[in-house]
Amino acid sequence: MQNRVKLPCGLSTGSGPRFNSRGSLVTCSAAFCDNEATHILEFVPREGNTERWGAYCENCPERRIAPAAEVDAARERGSRLQVQDFDLTRLPLSDEHWRYREFTDEERAEIEQIKVGALVETYIKPGVFEWHPPTDKGKENPK
């Protein structure tokens, strides 16, 4: 399982630039996905205060969103069957409260800064990274 990284703008993603197997710079937030993040998953509660849940790749199967009627019908069918191993977490997310969107210009600009090396991370502990401009320390003392 990969580390969780919170970008400077507050988005939760997968492993940071130095800590993923593909070497991509900002990965999908899904546990076992190393694809590059391209979209934001958002939750819209009834009160209307949209919450960003993280950055995901477009095709991540764990984050499929379906029409609310389809999700409700699947939930009702599972309840009717009363199967002990019926797991609501395997249902798709309802489009009544969940949606995907592409990065905003500000989010995309921050991702681009990370890609070109203008922002680098320092690992603090699992899921906690400190973001800053690169230093020239490595060039002064080559080993």
Structural features, described:
The protein is of the alpha+beta class. The chain is 20% helix and 24% strand. The chain contains three helices and nine strands, in the order E-E-E-E-E-H-E-E-H-E-E-H. The protein has a three-stranded antiparallel sheet, with no helix packed on it. The protein is elongated. The two termini are 32 Å apart. The relative contact order is 0.18.
Order of helices and strands: EEEEEHEEHEEH
Residue-averaged pLDDT = 76
Structural class computed from helices and strand pairing = alpha+beta
What global shape is seen? elongated
Distance between the termini: 32 Å
Q: How would you summarize the topology of this molecule?
A:
Layout: E1 5-6, E2 12-13, E3 39-43, E4 51-56, E5 65-66, H1 68-81, E6 93-94, E7 98-102, H2 105-115, E8 120-125, E9 128-132, H3 137-140
Parallel strand pairs: 5-6
Antiparallel strand pairs: 1-2, 3-4, 3-7, 8-9
Offer a quick outline of the entry:
The protein is of the alpha+beta class and 143 residues long. The chain has helices at 68-81, 105-115, 137-140, and strands at residues 5-6, 12-13, 39-43, 51-56, 65-66, 93-94, 98-102, 120-125, 128-132. The longest helix has 14 residues, at 68-81.
